[in-house]
């Protein structure tokens, strides 16, 4: 019987994306790499737990859940989350940023200074710039100020991000324009907390890091994994949690949200393909050292 692997998610670093596996191993992802795996026959997706702790009852979870947590573990996870605004006494400094995902899709957010740009890579931000840095509550108040004054959200759905990746403006200057304009408006506003230090506009472009140059529109996205199903293809791009795969068999580019991989037992496959449920787009938008 093939050795089964459990994925703990996609992680980004200065070296690029890598899939992490329970036990601490990782699989670096490079353009052109074959990514292929199967879901164990008869397998059931189980809760991944919370805050580094296993789910005490190994509860079953929906194949379409991107969190892969049962109700109780999801509650525990969010009870200790900066993103959920449940922590007010974190002593670390925080960055406030503007992130752009495509025309008309810019958000404001915060991330711990020590994390650098990892949060922006994890979200699939095509372009970003820092706005300021300071204590958590000052960063949070600034985020709220800018949301109201600039009319920008603090969240953009992944489906919207995916829809425009293959049709982004062709030059870095075009992609930077919206962030530069909003940054100028933001620093001109009154009401910033005194403890938050404003930062100059220095736009970072992730098109190269994500492999988006010349990206073909995706024909479908994986809706969920299923026991006995197979996913296989050549990696052509990655952004946030998403892998863009040129599916084996000439089917075209398919998007795999790697958050759907967690909670399943995954096994190697000799030949790939795509035999899991997908959402078609109306318009083409020994013991192994690793699973692949």
Mean pLDDT: 91
Helix content: 10-25%
Strands ordered across the widest β-sheet = 14-4-11-12-13-10-15
Rounded radius of gyration (Å): 20 Å
What ranges have pLDDT less than 50 throughout 5 or more consecutive residues? none
Give me some keywords for this one.
19% helix, alpha+beta, 292 residues, 6 helices, 7-stranded mixed β-sheet, 5-stranded antiparallel β-sheet
Describe this structure in words.
There is one protein chain. Helix content is 19%, strand content 29%. The chain has six helices and 15 strands. The strands form three sheets. It has a seven-stranded mixed sheet with strand order 14-4-11-12-13-10-15. Strands 5, 6, 7, 8 and 9 form a five-stranded antiparallel sheet that branches. With 292 residues, the chain is α+β, with helices and mostly antiparallel strands. A hairpin with a 4-residue loop joins strand 2 and strand 3.
